[in-house]
Amino acid sequence: MNLSQLNEKCLDCRACGLCEGRTNLVFGTGNENAKIMFVGEGPGEQEDLQGLPFVGRSGQLLDKLLAAVDLSRDENVYIANIVKCRPPKNRDPLPEEQDECIKWLRDQFKIIRPKIVVCLGRIAAQRLISPDFRVTRQHGEFTEKGGVLFMGTYHPSALLRYPENKEAAFADFLALRDKIEELGLK
Ligand code: URA
Fold first, then answer.
1. Given this model, what pLDDT does residue 181 score?
2. What is the mean pLDDT of the chain?
3. Residue 186: pLDDT band by 50, 70, 90 thresholds?
C-alpha cells in the first residue's frame, strides 16, 4: 500500500469520538520518500479547516525553522500528528484517542521508513520516545529505537507562547542538520 491509499482508508476512520467534531481529517503532508519525519500532537483549528498539518501560526514558525536548516515540507520532510482529528478546543488528545490513532502513524512509518523522527512537543515525545520525556530537560537528544533516531524538541505553539525558548529550539534544529550531514541523509 502507498501513502495515498493509506490516506484514503484513514479518511473513513471513526475509531474514536474525535471523528464527530472534525471538518477534515488531517493525515499528513510532505515527501513520501523523506528521511526525516516530524510528528506533532494533533490538528488545531486551521489544520482542521484545511485538512493539512501545521498550517496555522505554529506551522509558519515550523516552516521557518525548517527553512533555516535547508528542510522543507515540499521537498525533504514528511509531517504528521499523533492524532488525525482535532481535539475539541485544542485540548490534549486523551490516551485512549492516541491509542486508537497511533496505528495510522505506525502505518505511515512503515511506508515512509524515516531515518530520523523529530517529536514536536511533549505529547509526541512521550508517546514515541519515553512516557516520562521532559522537553525542557531532554530536547535535542537523539535516542535510537529499532534503527531509527528519535529526537524531541519544543512544540512550535509553545514557542509562540514562550519565545524565550526559541534559541534552544533553533539549537535543536542545528543539531538535526548536523545529524543529517553525519549520516549522509542528504
Ligand atoms: N499543532 C500540532 O500539534 N499539529 C498541527 O498539525 C498543528 C498544530
1. 97
2. 98
3. confident
Atom of ligand 1 nearest to the CA of 82: 3
Average pLDDT of 26-38? 98
Plot region of 86 (φ>0 → left; ψ -120 to 50 → alpha; else → beta): beta
- Ligand 1 in reach of 98 Cβ (< 6 A): no
Q: What predicted TM-score, i.e. pTM, was given to this entire model?
A: 0.98
- Rounded CA gap, 131 and 49, in Å? 31
Paired residues of 81 in beta bridges = 40
Neighbours of 108 (CB within 10 A): 22
Residue 74 DSSP code: T
Q: Tell me the CA–centroid distance for residue 178 and ligand 1, in Å.
A: 25
51-66 pLDDT, tens digit each = 999 999 999 999 999 9
Task: Tell me, in angstroms, the distance from the centre of ligand 1 to residue 54's CA.
Answer: 5
74, β-bridge pairs: none
Tell me if residue 97 falls in helix, strand or coil: helix
Please count the other Cβ atoms lying within 10 Å of the Cβ belonging to residue 96: 10
Q: How many angstroms separate the alpha carbon of residue 154 from the centre of ligand 1?
A: 12
